């Protein structure tokens, strides 16, 4: 496979460089994605492209991307072919001012003085992975909800603005699906209105819940 090596500059900001929850390879991939985003405002490259570029497996690329998405540095939008779950396109976008609840970096104090930027970024619906959250629910719970429904988006946005992130949504979905899916009386509650409502934090901290480790996008493209 021919690899087109772009001449654009790669940018890795301080809060990404010093984030101890992200592996060095994920940070390097972040820089590559910023370079590709310079052309169209988003990165269209597949996992296969990055795997060939760095000489690693698509599973490794998927894990690095998931780290960046889960920690709020990227958003991922998946487009499916009409009438199927076959992936047609994926678009990765840089979150302009990535903000995390926990900082272990030298720039922590700098962000304390800029609450306006933090609030605006948190409320920017373009940074919320509605598609990935609802797609994960549909795949795990065997449902068919739409990510564009206003009620569903409002619920996800409300929890996102409270500081919960993609991994939290997946954990709640995993816990309640394991508990309710085989229960004929309870499986009707595997829906956004219930899962992403005001009891979200209680579900997230529920004892006895076991999170699955399924990586549904490990072989993307």
UniProtKB/TrEMBL annotation:
A Pfam family of this chain: Phg_2220_C
Gene3D superfamilies: Winged helix-like DNA-binding domain superfamily/Winged helix DNA-binding domain (1.10.10.10)
Signal peptide segment: none
Phage conserved hypothetical protein C-terminal domain: residues covered: 133-205
Top-level taxon of origin: Bacteria
NCBIfam families assigned to the protein according to its UniProt record, in alphabetical order: phg_TIGR02220
UniProt-recorded name of the protein: Conserved phage C-terminal domain-containing protein
Source organism of this protein record: Lederbergia citrisecunda
